[in-house]
Specification:
- This protein has 269 residues and is mainly alpha-helical.
- 68% of the residues lie in helices and 0% in strands.
- It contains ten helices and no strands.
- The protein starts with a helix and ends with a helix.
- About 4% of the residues have low confidence.
Length: 269
């Protein structure tokens, strides 16, 4: 239920933040007729279904994105609870998944990853590591804490940010120089650094998983859209990579150690 409610607010952030509109004012309203949306029409998922995807006043179509984001938010909250249980760490996992969900849709809309959201994500990850370091409460990193840094949460998180972002930055610079065009954006590099604070050294695994997901998405998009102008757009590198990285980060947060063990076993076959 909390996931659904926060999913509704995620829709507000996704729409308003890139446009520089206040997140609190004005109240939710129809973008066409500007009629305020009452509480009965603002119940996550249910209201959209009852209204058959249309505004009650002007009957303009309401994008199915709204219930989709709400449902995805709920699913991510449930997955966090399943993986981490009723713990402080679960709260940090929820924040990690939730902000990645918002960044995913903003990147799909604008091909931008707002610094304010990426910075907020990094602050939460770093704050969790400081909390864990000073109090012993398990917060962040979500995975990857081990003997390499003396089981130090803060050292593990900071190292995770470095080993995740620096290779991505170097790869971006090298590929951009070779291809004579932008490849991995700086927003993606910053996002990887923030993800590393949550994932420790497993942030690098999230980068690889996200890259694989990105390749699959690009190929799928080309197959669906066919050749022509759409293919030219894809070839130009105009593809939002943030969603693929977000998927990689969520997968690794949930099953990263198991995924790494599976990969090691695969190499030994």
């Amino acid at each position: 239920m909390f996931g659904l409610v926060f999913g509704s607010f995620a829709n507000v952030v996704i729409w308003r933040l890139p446009r520089g509109v206040s997140l609190s004012h004005p109240d939710s309203h129809c973008p066409k007729c500007e009629t305020p949306i009452g509480w009965r029409d603002n119940i996550p998922v249910v209201s959209w279904l009852l209204l058959k995807g249309r505004c009650r006043s002007c009957e303009v179509r309401i994008s199915p994105r709204y219930p989709i984001v709400e449902l995805l938010s709920a699913v991510l909250w449930v997955l966090a609870g399943w993986r981490f249980g009723p713990t402080v760490q679960c709260g940090f996992a929820v924040a990690f998944f939730y902000v990645l969900l918002i960044l995913t849709w903003i990147d799909l809309d604008t091909m931008r990853l707002p610094n304010v959201l990426v910075g907020f994500l990094a602050a939460v990850g770093f704050g969790g590591a400081v909390l864990a370091q000073l109090s012993g409460i398990v917060a962040t990193p979500l995975v990857g804490l081990g003997p390499l840094f003396g089981f130090s949460p803060l050292a593990t998180s900071v190292a995770g940010a470095v080993v995740t972002a620096v290779p991505a930055l170097l790869l971006s610079l090298i590929m951009s120089a070779l291809l004579k065009r932008p490849t991995l954006g700086m927003g993606d590099v910053k996002l990887l650094g923030a993800m590393g604070l949550f994932l420790g050294a497993y942030g690098l695994l999230a980068f690889f998983v996200g890259s694989f997901v990105g390749i699959v998405l690009v190929v799928a998009a080309r197959v669906v859209k066919g050749t022509g102008s759409d293919a030219a757009t894809a070839d130009s590198g105009l593809f939002p990579f943030g969603p693929a990285l977000a998927i990689g980060g969520i997968i690794v947060a949930l099953v990263g150690p198991q995924l790494w063990l599976w990969y090691q076993a695969l190499l030994q076959v």
